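dumping the sequnces here before i forget
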Amino acid sequence: MNTSLLTPQVCYAAAIAGAFITALSQILLKTQANTTGKKGFFSKFLNIRVIAAYGLLFLTLAINQIALRYVPLSVMPCITATSFIWVFLMGALLLKEKVSPRKILGVIVILAGVIISRL
Amino acid sequence: MLNHFLDKRRNVFLLAAFAIFMESLTSPCLKIGSQRYETFSAGYFFWFGLAVAILAIYAVCWQLILERLPLTTAYLRRGFSYILLFVWSALLFHETITPKQILGIAVISLGMVISVSDEHGKKPEQKPEET
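..and the predicted 3d for all of it:
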């Protein structure tokens, strides 16, 4: 397989895309978990949103494996940490989850941490 | 039986700890596959498959946890797996970890603790049943 397309830049871009897709799949899982109620064990896992969410996770995994060819494992945390920010924003805006001042502060501090490790 | 076990909040956190540990092993598997084997070779896919299997166990645990904690809290807690990831990157891949990275991850973890501490001691909110 011709791997000349897999430059370090492409790998870093792939890692960032992977973080965003992870956040999307988490939101999908949460919308499903919120509607499950007291249904049976298997109905929690076998429905379209859960399957789509895990499909996205599978895709992220394939993307991350490509990314990890050049991205050091120790650098992955600060790239994947950006998905926390996406989940927080989507949780608040789309799912109308309760947003407390502490959670906002937490997300700002996480963002600062990402910036510090990449300076 | 499972629902009864997870009625205890402590058990939900135990399950979360197990899930976090499992999840931290997936990236090392992927990296072994993509660094030590040619892209899309048999070895590459073997390690991908192993990562998928580990993640499947994690996913079942996590789905059960998500139903019992608000998403933002549950997701931020997962960040503790990043600390484990540093251990794996030093042990398995002999990567140099710079002071900036340690400071960065410490600040990221602090951000997670700040968010998580908001929930501490609170009873889980009653979720409205779907009509």
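Chain B touches chain A through 61 residues (CB under 8 Å).
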